[in-house]
Structures are given as structure tokens and as C-alpha cells.
């Protein structure tokens, strides 16, 4: 939108030159994008987006009101003609459209007009704001549009057949616009029509079949109010955008329809003195003239702004903007003017903004709010997840991955699962992401297959939510719990090798030791066959317990599942239930002095049944001398035909030490014999020699 400095000056005394005025308007009202000279005038270019909520600013008089409020100057009244009801019979108008589509419609008949060129002052004023001159009548309707913000339209009286009707178009009804464009209308478009044809698109453009031309001597002046959405849809569908449609789209004040007519008649006297109003004003008014009444307090406005403005100053700002103000001590009742009541001002906070912008936000000293700030205590879940990430990404050197929380039926089938037991999405992103995951493993296997194309060995993990059909305890939200999946993959682990299983087992032990949770860590084979996941290797799967609580499972990937994904590498998987880990207490820390005396290593190998748990063997060795056995570490597992199908050989390094002296040869021998005796008492075959 363009704004003329001289046009504003007709209604308010402006103490500033154009440039400082533009700066004040930018800070208080609407953004001035630039300005240019037009003869001896200065024209401002205003960003239309900053006027979207201010239909009153789509005319110069609305901006003049803002300038008067900013500079505390009186606003000169606009000269309006007085319409005589006895001028003649009203022109017949039938408003058939719903009241919300056409809240008000005015029509006035004017005779004795002489169509011709516009006077220089009118041409110059329109050219300043970017409008071309057509003829004196059309130019005058445009002048009122740019001054008042109310679109008008002039029909040639002789080209109208009978009464004007405001109605919905019929499907495929033909219409030729003033610009020569021919359109086929739809039944959702509001039109102005006489008894034979459509003569205008409501709020958008008039028709060529009723335009004012050099032969026109009588006219019907239209000034109406139309629903903004209806006008916008019509304009968009027909690809017609006009100055009128832009204003109607913002939601104009129905009161302005009569103002526009009276202003037009007043100006017509100057350029066409012989013209005469020959009808009373046809006024079909179905609008509500009730405007919002807002109650608030001066102290509340000051508190919101961070100011100490006197009550009189606040009242003065609101009054200059056109608000009606009634006060009683600290209380005030504010009546919103009709031109600000179309969706702009409705609540007390809106009044705060009005006072603040006119007073000047740059005049308000910025102060930080004095609000007590208490440190936020991190949740136990957040702390645990952060610790898991620190250990896995730090000392264990895993890479964290992020996957969608969704899976599809094809991916589930590759993992040996069905869609049963999965929550279905009502509006999935894609057909292969239509279910909520119940485990992190399927997506982890998918990206494992993808990453094997680029790397032969890697370690990845994910900590995130999984979702169950049934709600679980210890969860933040129904159906939701947190889980961890860690995965080791190495193309060197091929065939029947169990390296993947023991590698992931070692990483699991390190991770859980670092968490320092209460309870002895134990790893057992699954108690029930149905406890195995489809991707679990039947002979290389173990359940993980801390004390009596099961916290997860570790396994080597089942060969069939590996084949389904095309994974030609050994894969070890660790699954932990983070929601269960959250319920376990910390073990606390026990500090021991530095070992001052030498340690003595002792390697021992034994043969035992295949199903023997390594943890049981370690416990047996430690129990032989709890005070002297400092560490038991497995360093080799052997299976071979010479041992038998159900046998395996385990080799351990046992470390002896004393806290108060150096172990002597006899004491060392006794400790070694004690370990051997303890193992043999459990029917393990100790390999000697």
C-alpha cells in the first residue's frame, strides 16, 4: 500500500518531515519499507503484511488517526454530505444472500452527471498512490477507496434492468469483468445482479455490461460490506486480485459503507456541481453494531508494560485512537470503536499493546523480570539414560543411532514377527511405517544390513521408547517404556563361531559394572524356550539378572534372521529394559587401599559339561579363599572332538594377593591346591601337567 504525506497532512498537523514520520509509523503502527518523491509530495511504501489485522489502515484517514495519536494532535473531521431522505424513492435492492455474506448493502441514485476527465488535483492524488485515472466518476470511487478504505462501485443506471439483487451465482453462469476477462462462475460465488444478468462480482470487480462511460448521465452508487472469506475465495478461484478485494479480505467495518457514500457525494459536488442525488439511501443493514466493552485497570496496564504512566496519559492515548473510555479511580471501561472491532481489539491485552506502541516501546526501560529461578532437578530416567550414553559412547566406543519409532509388516516378517501385539497408527507416514515398535531390534538389524556395505565391523546402540498394547508399570506414559539395544557386528565372526556372543557379553558386563547397581550380576540360559525372541540363537542366548530381577537379554543373532536381512557377519545383541533398571537401587561405592604387596597369577584349565555357567565356575574359585583371591578372569574356551560333544574346556587366570604381606611359596601352593580342590569338589576335571 502507498501512503501520501500531503494527503495525511490534510487531516492532521504533522510536526515532522517525511523521514522522521516514517520512522515513527514503523515503530508504532506499520512497517514503512521505503519512500519516494512524487512531485512535491512524499509517498511511503507500506508492507501490506503489517496491515493484515488492521482494516482501518487501508485508507489515509485511518493512518491520519494514528499520526494524530502519536503526535498528540487533533484529527480533523472528514467532510461528509448530508443525505436527504426526501430526495426520492430508494432504488430497489434485494439482498438474497445470507446475512454473514453481505452484512450491509447501500445504494444511491445520482442523476445529472457528466462523465469526463478528472481535475488535476484528483489525477495527481491517485497517481501518487499508484492508481491510473479513468474518468471523473471512476476516479472519485477510487479516491474514496484510498481515503476512507471503503470500496465503492458505480453502475450506469440506464444499463440496469430492474432491481439489484445480491445473490449466489448459478453454476457456470457467465460474467465479463471490467478488465475484459470472461469467467464461468460457480455456485459458491456471491454476485450483484439485475433482473437479467450479473453486473458485478461482490467485493472483487464490476462487470463490463454496466460500466460508467462517456454516455452515462445517471448512476447507481454501490457501497457494501461483504464477508472476507467469500471475497478471498472468489478472487483466488478466478485469479482476480483488486484493490477492493484486498480490503474486503481484511474484514471491513460495516459502518463505513454509509461513510463512503456520503464522502463520495461531498466530493462529487466539487467536480460535477450539476449532479443531483435523486433517491434516498437504500440501506440493507443486517450487521451488529454492538462493539466489545473491555474492563481493565490502569495499574494492570502499567504492570504489563513495565511503566508508571499517569492515568490521564493512558486515557489520552486510547481516546485519540478513537476508543470510548469511562474511568473510576483505577478502573476503566473501554468501548472499542467499530473500525477496530472486526477482529483486531477484543481483550485487555490488546489495549496494553495500543498504549505501549503509541507511548513508544523504545521509551520503556528494559528490565529483566525479578522471577525466582530454582534449578531444575533432572529426572531419574534422564540421568540414567545420560549415564548409559556416556558409558557406551565413551569407554565402550559405541556409536549411537536414532531410528523412527515405527515399523512395517515386511520388516517384522524379516525378524520372524507378526503385526499382532503392535499398536497401529491411524495416520502413518508411509505404508512401511504403520505400526509402533515393541522392540528396538528390528530397526537395528535393518541399519546393520545397510552399514555392512560400507564397514565390516562396527558397534552401535540406541536408547529410546518402545510401545506395548498393554500398559506397563514404572513407565511415564501408558503403553510406553524405555529400552536399550546394543549391537556388535564383525564380518570376521563367521560360520559357527560364538565370538559374537561372548563379545557382547563382555560389553554388557562392563556396562552394568559401570552403572554400579545393587545386586549380583548373573547370566543364565533362558528358563523357558518361549522366552526366546525370534532373532535369538537357540544355543547362544542368556538372560541377565541383577540379584533376583531380570533386566534384559543378550544373544547371538539367529542364522535364519541373519539370512533374511542378508547379513553375512557375526552379530551380538544386548537388550536391556531401562524402565526396570530405573527401579534398582545404587550399590554405593566401597573404597579399598592400593595393593601394596605383589600379586601372584595362577592359570588353571578345566573340563566341564557344555551347559556349565562360567559364572558358577568363577564363584567356585573365589569361594576357595575369599580374602586371597582378588580376581578371576576367563581367557580361553575350547571345544573339540577330543573332549566329547557335550564337554568344553575353560581356562582362567586367578590372581592371589595378601593385604599385609608378600605371599610365600608355601602359602601360594596352598592357595593353588585350594582352588583345585574346590573345582574337583564340583566334579570339574582339572587339567594338570
Automatic annotation (TrEMBL):
Keyword ATP-binding among record annotations: yes
Catalytic activity: tRNA(Phe) + L-phenylalanine + ATP = L-phenylalanyl-tRNA(Phe) + AMP + diphosphate + H(+)
Cofactor(s) listed in the protein's UniProt record: Mg(2+)
GO cellular component: phenylalanine-tRNA ligase complex
CDD domains in the cross-refs: PheRS_beta_core
Keyword Aminoacyl-tRNA synthetase: yes
Location in the cell: Cytoplasm
GO biological process: phenylalanyl-tRNA aminoacylation
Group of enzyme by EC: ligase
PROSITE patterns per record: B5 (PS51483), FDX_ACB (PS51447)
PANTHER family: PHENYLALANINE--TRNA LIGASE BETA SUBUNIT (PTHR10947:SF0), PHENYLALANYL-TRNA SYNTHETASE BETA CHAIN AND LEUCINE-RICH REPEAT-CONTAINING PROTEIN 47 (PTHR10947)
NCBIfam families, per the entry: pheT_bact (TIGR00472)
Family membership: Belongs to the phenylalanyl-tRNA synthetase beta subunit family. Type 1 subfamily.
Protein known as: Phenylalanine--tRNA ligase beta subunit
Species the sequence originates in: bacterium (Candidatus Blackallbacteria) CG17_big_fil_post_rev_8_21_14_2_50_48_46
